[in-house]
Amino acid sequence: MCFADESGNLIYLEVMTISARRCFIGRDKAAGVLVGHLEGVTFIDSRGDGCYFISNGKEQTIKLWDIRKMSSTPPAKHEVQRNYEWDYRWMEYPPELRNLKHPFDQSVSTYKGHSVLRTLIHCYFSPLHSTGQKYIYTGSTTVLSTYMTCLIATSF
């Protein structure tokens, strides 16, 4: 969980739902849903602008999200069928699954190239004061991965 901005009114949860704090009063319902990861989410980080955040998934991807693209309800059949047994704690992600995409993926962009194995790797936006949060970075089971793609150039 992390806050979307300094106001504390929006909260990003790892289940990829966006909750407005005012929604917690009298209702147990998310303000919106974003669908896209195929496996569990290990970490989320907000850009702090109330619009963009990134999430790291166990399927070895980082996704960039724009909450303005969220749905009020998830697609009727948003669960992806799994025909495999896999556990990040002791198994490498199956190579044949690395290029799968969720059929209802709402992310702005997907980044690949790092490995989540035996650990719950985090992902972050680069510091505002030195890079203007133009980059994202993460760890990997073997090395530090930096996605040097300028996020400003990404079509938001």
TrEMBL record:
<dbReference type="InterPro" id="IPR001680">
    <property type="entry name" value="WD40_rpt"/>
</dbReference>
<dbReference type="InterPro" id="IPR011047">
    <property type="entry name" value="Quinoprotein_ADH-like_sf"/>
</dbReference>
<protein>
    <submittedName>
        <fullName>Uncharacterized protein</fullName>
    </submittedName>
</protein>
<dbReference type="GO" id="GO:0043161">
    <property type="term" value="P:proteasome-mediated ubiquitin-dependent protein catabolic process"/>
</dbReference>
<dbReference type="InterPro" id="IPR051859">
    <property type="entry name" value="DCAF"/>
</dbReference>
<feature type="repeat" description="WD">
    <location>
        <begin position="34"/>
        <end position="75"/>
    </location>
</feature>
<keyword id="KW-0853">WD repeat</keyword>
<dbReference type="InterPro" id="IPR015943">
    <property type="entry name" value="WD40/YVTN_repeat-like_dom_sf"/>
</dbReference>
<dbReference type="GO" id="GO:0080008">
    <property type="term" value="C:Cul4-RING E3 ubiquitin ligase complex"/>
</dbReference>
